[in-house]
Design goal:
- The structure is a single chain.
- The protein is mainly alpha-helical.
- The protein has two domains: 1-60, Arc Repressor Mutant, subunit A; 69-195, Tetracycline Repressor, domain 2, CATH 1.10.357.
- The protein is 71% helix and 0% strand.
- It has eleven helices and no strands.
- It is globular.
- The protein starts with 10 loop residues before the first helix and ends in a 5-residue tail after the last helix.
């Protein structure tokens, strides 16, 4: 999907971002229409109107078209720059809202499809733990920057672990919800519980 909040600087970077988004969007539409296993790289490059060489320049494998997520670094950076007076949960809420509220309905639906594929496709599930670890690393660094604590501070690691669990479960339930609920609404409810200490 195209960058929803900030555009890459420079003509070359903008062109690369558009090409990557075009390939990913074509892949996600094909996966939705005919299934992940039935879709070939050749079909993706034809739908995206790019060469096979261009495809592999941006995505080493077919599965990478699912795992590529340009929203995560945008959320992480927005999290760091939220007002200093906000606690970590409020800062995360503000960062996610800042990024996701700029998605078009089509972009939001493609993101839902992408999350559904991550949860359901067996070949993709095998890589999911590596992806989760990369997200934890990204937000551990972001929280350390925001709070001035060390990345290996137990409080930083505990908070990021709790946050990752909340966001992961929200993605899974949102992507499987047939009612068309909004991700921001579901995550907001989950963050309310996290902020309250997860009362049961």
């Amino acid at each position: 999907m195209s960058t929803p909040t900030t555009a890459p600087t420079g003509l070359r970077e903008r062109k690369k971002a558009r090409t990557r988004a075009t390939i990913q969007q074509a892949a996600l539409r094909l996966f939705h229409d005919q299934g992940y296993a039935a879709t070939t790289v050749d079909q993706i490059v034809q739908a995206a109107d790019v060469s096979e060489r261009t495809f592999f320049r941006y995505f080493p494998t077919k599965a990478d078209t699912i795992f590529y997520d340009q929203l995560e670094p945008l959320v992480a950076e927005a999290f760091v720059t939220q007002p200093a007076g906000l606690n970590a949960v409020a800062a995360l809420r503000g960062a996610v809202t800042q990024v996701y509220s700029n998605l078009t309905p089509e972009q939001s639906e493609l993101e839902r499809q992408r999350q559904r594929l991550i949860a359901q496709v067996s070949g993709v599930q095998a890589v999911t733990p590596q992806k989760i670890q990369s997200v934890i690393t990204l937000f551990t660094s972001a929280l350390a920057r925001r709070t001035g604590r060390a990345p290996d501070d137990p409080a930083v690691l505990a908070w990021v672990g709790a946050m990752a669990g909340v966001v992961l479960v929200t993605y899974v339930t949102w992507s499987a919800d047939p009612t068309g609920s909004r991700f921001l609404d579901r995550l907001g409810d989950a963050l309310d519980l996290l902020e309250q200490g997860l009362p049961l």
